[in-house]
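Recap from last week: sequence in, structure out.
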Amino acid sequence: MKIRLASPMTRDSIVDGPGLRAVIWAQGCFHNCPGCHNPCTHNPFGGFEMDVDDLIAQLDSLHLQQGLTLSGGEPFLQARALAAVARAARRRGLNVWAFTGFTFEQLTDRKNPGWADRTALLEQIDVLVDGRFERDKRDLSLRFRGSSNQRILDVKKSLALQAPCVIEEYMRQAM
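Predicted structure tokens:
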């Protein structure tokens, strides 16, 4: 199985979730949020293609990282491939975060095409930052998100309750 990436995996991020993290940058996004900080990831034909097994093998080189973050672009446009990567990351003891322009409600709506693949990815994610970036709600004091409409969700609880469960600790402003 192949995946389209915007860049090689970032190995040492401290801004894409708590602790030292690796980040996978998915290529392709149709949200086109005005003010997006990664517009170069929007073109679905940009970036480069990689075999998912090769990307998973790169996880073995991670030693100090506590987690893996899926960002982009829009990770849920490549949900099947990233579900395999996230599953492998969890087997290696990493927690998994994902950033998406979709809301939890959109991702879990069974009427939307691709629901099964999105659900398979959600089941491998610990924390989801959901919602489009909205420039008029931009707030640099927020932790792990760019605008105040975006939520930081406990995915396991959200899936169990079939409703978004916000992690209040992360929703507070940064010091």
